[in-house]
Amino acid sequence: MNKILILANSASGLYDFRNELILELLKRYEVHISLPDGEKVPQLAQEGCKMYYTAIDRRGVNPARDLKLLCSYWKLIWHIKPKIVLTYTIKPNIYGNICCRLQRVPYIANITGLGSAFENGGIIQKIVTVLYQIALKNAACVFFQNKENQRIFAKSRICGKKSRLVPGSGVNLDRHCFKEYPLEEEHMIFLYVGRIMKEKGIDELLYAAKAIHKEYPKVLFQLVGNYEDDYKQKIESAQAEGVLELIGYQKNITSFYQKASAVVMPSYHEGMSNVILEAAANGRPVLATQIPGCREGFTEGVTGFGFPPKNQEALYDTIVRFLNLSYKERVQMGRCAREKMEREFDRKKVIQAYIEEIQSAGKEYKL
Questions:
Q1: Taking Cα atoms as reference points, which of 93, 48, 44 lies closest to residue 73?
Q2: CATH assignment, 189-344
């Protein structure tokens, strides 16, 4: 049986958003997976995947560590001898695919977002651009999750043999089924799901939550996720004041979507926000930044409201605008959100796109 190798930087991200693809691949291939953590490894191994540990410095730019990662990928690919390699996120996309190119192994990359290293400019951006140009030159296909990322790569002359746009990771419409909107007499809850860090817009969210709490004391903000930056003191202080409730990381967040009146996503950059897709699939309106990777997931005034990134007053105004809607209007917004997911973001579409490109690469390389 032909082997497929998957390189990714998060076990939970791979399992939560791409496990349906993995299960489909297991019907046809021997699936090998390299990850830097072990959170979902038992589940993946039980499904039949062969697992490998590869350390990745996810957020750092350390030449020594990155060189070590390059060497680890080289040895892994040489040892497994896969017929094709699938990569996700910046470091597997760059270092894994450089190894694939040098070893003449076909590969497919997925640009899950540009990330701060690419977007902040300066010498780091120039280095990342060159590395991407080298890594993706021979890619059988480069998947993009939004048109803006695809445009930026084309402008920067970063290209593979072909590119293809997919609706992010899509959303599993069976797992994230429609939930009836919370009853009118219940407290309104604005839910944030994600890492507690600056680039996710936490500073703006804290400002807006405090301002809203003064005018609407019965409104509650819930934060589901772990700290990645030093926000511990700020979050605990806001929680003590009754402004928000920190839930922390949760393996299953369905019940939190169910109780929420709306989901807030103030992020600075996304490939395609899975939180927005899941919230909408559950029938919840979305208040999100008007950036690539967020704006595709909602229709302005129909399934949610948008606001510019890094603008705390705009976020506050958007929340007030939502609060001023009637209960009937909020319910209808949630229903429209679910319908949009059914039309545009069914995860089955993403799986089919991958199968098609893997088969296409197989014909080209005579796998």
A1: 93
A2: 3.40.50.2000
